Predict the 3D structure of the following.
Amino acid sequence: MTDFVHFERDHGVVTLTLNRPRERNALSTQSQWDELVSYCERVRDDESVKVVILTGAGTAFSAGGNVKDMRDKRGIAAGNPYRIAQGYQSGIQRIPLALHQLEVPTIAAINGPAIGAGCDLACMCDIRIASEHAQFAESFVKLGIVPGDGGAWLLQRAVGYQRAAELSFTGDLIDAPTALAIGLVTRVVPHDLLMPTARELAVRIAANPAPALRMAKRLLRQAQTARLDESLQLSAALQALAHHTPEHDQAVAAFFEQRKPHPA
């Protein structure tokens, strides 16, 4: 581990903080990508985790890639086209796959600029909350490149094709209120309330039964690409499983007893 990611656990809520504030939490090295993926795998293998919050230390969420590496043709920009393509696949592209494979809800608490790959990283989360200091840019075109980390797939699922096209083709920087207006984030809060707001939401989510949370997320993800009949088939199968979980029985009992169910 390179200590690029700070891991914090509070009961069923895990907070992952990108911890290179002097570098504006740039996603620029193999060791950093590997570390973030490793923590995703750790969460995925721990059934007691219910929610993940992803945020950045310092003034930026993530400034994306390292432009100096692009200039000097090193790191991810080193080698011939075949080597660069392979480097993306074995490197930074593992992050969207790792986050996408998480069965638990994920919340991006965007504390500052989320630029390029940083914007895409925010879009990898299920829910996005922004500080008033947050800014966003799908800025790859400004550098004569394209989003190599899945941004073309992710951004349009967050804001729709036309908005994603405008952001991708212009590379323009937008502020937090604009991000809220186009649906890129669900809310904008004062900067000092960002983490309390994200944690409060995480706690409200984590109060629900773990199996139902995981199955609800699976249904939502499958429904993005499935036909209605396919989605109905999966929902029937998962509902049948849910009816036979002890967490369901406990929640039903609590409903009739007019009390909160015990944490699962």
DSSP finds twelve helices and nine strands in the chain.
